[in-house]
Amino acid sequence: MNISKVKNYFNGIIPDKQTLIKKANKAGRSMQGIWLKATTSKFEKWIDKASFKRKIKQHGKKALSSAIGACEKIWKLKEQGKLGLSTHSLFEIALFIETKLPKYISKHKYHLDKKTTGLNRSIEYDPKTKRVFIDLRSSLGSGVHKKVTKALLYDSKKPLFIACAKSSEKCAAETRVHKKFKHKQGLAQTYAITHHKGTTSLFLKLYNGHSLRHHQYNRGELSKKEMAIITRDLLYGLEHLHKHNLVHCDLHGGNALMDKSGKKISAALIDFGRTKRVGAAKKKGPRIHASARTNPPEVFMKGKNISAKAVDIYALGCQLYHLNYGKELELPSKGAFVHAFHAGRGQQHSFGKVVRADLKKLQAQRKQQIDSHRKSSSYDLFQKIILKMCHNNPSSRGTAHSLRKKLDNIIKNWNST
Fold first, then answer.
1. pLDDT tier at 1 (50, 70, 90 boundaries)?
2. Which domains, from first to last, does the chain contain?
3. Which of 332, 338, 327 is nearest to 355 (CA)?
4. Which of 286, 291, 287 minimizes the C-alpha distance to 271?
5. Of the candidate ranges 43-52, 140-149, 250-259, 287-296, the one whose mean pLDDT is the lowest
6. pTM for this entry
């Protein structure tokens, strides 16, 4: 028997090829017989013996091997979360992708629902990135215009759980941001954007940690240094947006997600549906940010030349203050905040002055507490950056770039004294 032919026939799908080759030579059996016996026992969890032989004739060894190889890789992902598919269902989907999907792609049919495929999950193909996605239908959350589900990035070498955000809205602003900043630190990573029958699908990185809001109300889960790293990453995100004259306009605890891998932690801003150009945001006036409590005092005051970027910095500062101290900014006036936000400009102007005075007192109190320490620690310096972001004077808040650079140095030279 020709050993090189046997090696080519196995094509890398049997781990211990040399052993099988020796057995085949010794027994004097045919390549087809020894291969079928070995592969059937190895892949029996995916397909029964009768179907295996039938599908070999129907689709060929290479397609079957690729599908089973992908299934093996995908099945290992179960350690990271629920797959929601049986071995049989997963194999049928993988085999469809390997054998039938190319025909649909050639006809420019990229969104294949269950009715079209006969499978129990829909499949989507992105012609720009040439990536294939499987909708796992597991809900991750929903918003006013969006529904987010878990999906699978199908890859025979490195499959991934990802998030799929679907919206019936046009999502022009959000799509623009995701296309512009696909792989930028501090902003949600984008794998693909597709459009089908009025629905926009954003395929994004699935962050395995909690949201910033979760940690605001569950103190103690993050170390002080981890909070500093999260702050630095979110400032990186703002820096990228501000550098291109864009402002987020919706910075709250639910729009920042964490990702944890071993001892490493990172964070990213999400949901760019309200993102605007600086000029458009300034025209919006006191409603630059959707949430009343994340708007600084200057947006309520008459005659103020509002810096939309400074409003973003303040809004993020409010969220980080809550993360660090376990409570919102302690402003005596905050009870009337929402009322003033919706009131006439005259009432807003006088209220803006009150908020500004409250902020000034709060900052003085916090700084006094920090400065009372015998020796300044990295954590003390980190707290001062948060207070700076919440400053009553917009010109004193700093830029995302300058604040991020300071935090980089603090984290690099971190000490806990």
1. very low
2. 3-61 (no CATH), 87-205 (3.30.200.20), 212-412 (1.10.510.10)
3. 332
4. 291
5. 287-296
6. 0.81
